[in-house]
Write a structure and sequence with these properties.
There is one protein chain. With 194 residues, the chain is α/β, with parallel strands linked by helices. The chain has a single domain, classed as Rossmann fold. Helices cover 48% and strands 21% of the residues. The chain contains nine helices and eight strands. Strands 4-3-8-7-5-6 form a six-stranded parallel sheet, with helices on both faces. Strands 1-2 form a two-stranded antiparallel ribbon. Helix 2 crosses helix 3. It starts with a strand and ends with a helix. The protein binds uridine-5'-diphosphate (UDP). The site of uridine-5'-diphosphate (UDP) has 14 residues, from helix 9.
Length: 194
């Protein structure tokens, strides 16, 4: 897989269509995957914090979430094809999940926001199975969060705990899972909640 290194972060050199195809393949083959959509804030945080950098290095794919990252790659003469945001990937995978009847799990946001998002998803994407959800205000290290995901056996897990928690949480818990694509989606659950 081709990568573009920006301040130590190995960005995946893939346009969003190829990335989505690749992730669908992982779902079909019941493989797990960890997707980070990195904006300049994430890049600078990882540059200053080696533990957070290690968490990002554990990702399967790191996309450029911001035109500034794409521009930086052009300056480095190793251009990334386009910006790929967490929100865009989430919207695309809600469509795919509806077509393929995939199971999804939502992790993050406040409880009332989360429940509104689940309701909106069930209304607009009737063939998606919402296999589970958990709000993002749990104690760090609470084992029941990963247990709930394992029990639900989702194909896709949208993780919206904000930066840097979402990347840290997946990196620290990834070994507990044997399938599922885990996508960091920032404030997207809030947006879906309306
Ligand atoms: N969030 C959460 N748990 C936390 C902190 C944040 O679930 O401990 C959620 C928050 O409710 C929101 C999402 O993470 O739904 C994104 O939060 P924020 O806008 O602060 O993060 P950013 O998108 O700037 O990384």
């Amino acid at each position: 897989m081709k990568q573009v290194n920006i301040l130590g972060i190995p960005f995946t050199n893939m346009d969003h269509v190829t990335l989505v195809q690749q992730l669908q393949l992982h779902i079909e083959q019941r493989e797990k995957s960890f997707v980070v959509t990195a904006n300049p804030e994430i890049v600078m945080r990882a540059h200053d914090n080696s533990y957070y950098m290690d968490c990002l290095q554990a990702a399967s794919y790191i996309t450029a979430d911001g035109i500034g990252i794409v521009k930086a790659s052009q300056l480095l003469k190793n251009p990334l094809p386009e910006r790929v945001t967490g929100y865009d990937i989430m919207m695309e995978f809600l469509e795919i999940a509806n077509q393929k009847k995939h199971r999804i799990f939502l992790l993050g946001a406040k409880e009332d926001t989360l429940q509104r998002a689940v309701g909106n998803i069930q209304t607009h994407y009737p063939d998606i199975e919402v296999a589970g959800s958990r709000n993002g205000y749990f104690e760090w290290g609470d084992p029941t969060v990963a247990e709930a995901i394992n029990e639900a056996q989702p194909d896709i897990v949208f993780v919206a705990l904000g930066v840097p928690k979402q990347e840290r949480w997946i990196a620290e818990n990834f070994s507990k899972f044997n399938k599922g694509i885990f996508i960091c989606v920032g404030g997207s659950i809030d947006v879906v909640a309306g």
